[in-house]
Amino acid sequence: MNKTLVAALISTVLIAPSVSATEIFKDDVNTVSIGGFVDARVINTQGETEVVNGASRINFGFARQLQNGWNAFAKLEWGVNPVGSTDIVYNNRFESIQDEFFYNRLGYAGLAHDTYGSITIGKQWGAWYDVVYGTNYGFVWDGNTAGVYTYNKDDGAVNGVGRGDKTVQYRNSFNDISFAVQVQLKNSEFYTCDFEDITQDACEDLWTTGATEAQKVEYNYTYGGSITYQATDKLVLAAGVNRGEFDVTFGNGNTSTAEDIIYGVSATWGNFDQNGFYASANINKNENHDTDNIGRLIDKSVGVESLFSYMFDNNIRTFVSYNILDAGNDYVIQPNYNADPEDEFKRQFVVMGLHYVFNPETVVYLEVRRDYSDFTSNDKDQQARMELSEDDGVAIGIRYTL
Question: Is the residue at 377 inside a domain?
Answer without folding.
Answer: yes
